[in-house]
Amino acid sequence: MGLATFKTGWQRQVQYFGHEQGSRYTCLIYDNRGMGESDKPLARYSTSELAKDTLALVDHLGWISPRQLHVVGVSMGGMTAQELRQLFSQSWLEAPDDYGDFPTNGDRFAAMDLAKRQDVEGFTRKGMICQAIAAGWHHKSPEQLSELADKVGRQRIQVLHGTVDGMISAPHGETLARELGEDKGVTKIVVQGCGHVLHFEKTGMYHKILEDMVEKVEGLE
Predict the structure, then answer these.
(1) What pLDDT is recorded for position 84?
(2) 35 three-state secondary structure
(3) Do the strands 187-191 and 158-162 form a parallel or antiparallel pair, or are they unpaired?
(4) For residue 149, with 0-12 CB atoms within 10 Å meaning exposed, 13-18 middle and 19 or more buried, which class applies?
(5) CA atoms in the 13 A half-sphere facing the CB of 160
(6) In whole angstroms, what is the distance from residue 221 CA to residue 212 CA?
(7) Are 149 and 157 in contact (CB under 8 A)?
(8) For the whole prediction, is pTM greater than 0.90?
(9) What value does the mean pLDDT take over residues 13-41?
(10) How many other CB atoms are there within 10 angstroms of residue 24's CB atom?
(11) Buried (b) or exposed (e) across 121-131, using 16+ Cβ within 10 A?
(12) HSE-up (13 A, CA, CB side) for residue 72
């Protein structure tokens, strides 16, 4: 998950892919270093080090076969309580929560954030600051993105972005897709009226997008 977020932020996706579609998918979720049940070393974090943590985890599980994994991530952009509203459109926050007993999506999100902040061992200022440093120092040049796309295969890459993302504006998604090679097979999907966290705002759509992408890449050689 993103900055200062617990793995439980994937609860909807785990319910759908891991349980409702459990005969087809196996889900792995985890807390990034600095949060939740993971260790919280005091050091300068980086996104490359977080990636190494992921590789160590899947290696430990034995998930090392070629093309065995479908990797899905949510931004590690800076996030504070006062800025959370920027992640979602006002209309989504006020819409009824159809995944539980909360009156609105905003009520559910607020409850999740309160629960996280009440976990004084899992949610720490130190961990949040270290993750913020990792996100702030993340950088990939056009050359690095091109090399990444060459190694992964452009038809296996998809970029999703919302048009009203208040944390990372839509032009950044356009740039990322272009540098990865949108004109050479990279899939770009722009969701009108959606904010920063698509898997919350458009859950059903998000699941369908992932399923379609998985089906596509599984059909590739």
Answers:
(1) 33
(2) coil
(3) parallel
(4) buried
(5) 21
(6) 17
(7) yes
(8) no
(9) 90
(10) 9
(11) ebbbeebbebb
(12) 22
Sign of the Cα torsion 159, 33, 81, 13 reads positive
pLDDT in tens, 97-126: 877 788 988 888 778 878 887 888 898 888
Q: How many whole angstroms separate alpha carbon 167 and alpha carbon 63?
A: 33
Q: What confidence tens digit (pLDDT) does each residue in 54-104 have?
A: 777 877 888 877 667 777 777 662 222 223 343 456 667 788 887 778 898
The half-sphere exposure of 77 on its side-chain side, counting CA atoms within 13 A, is 15
CA distance 141 to 126: 29
Q: What is the pLDDT of residue 44?
A: 74
Please name the amino acid found at residue 145.
L
Q: Which residue has the tokens 């070393």?
A: 41
Give kind and range of the element (H or E) at residue 158: strand 158-162
Tell me the two tokens of residue 202.
Answer: 């458009």
- Residue type (1 letter), 204: G
Residue 186: what pLDDT? 95
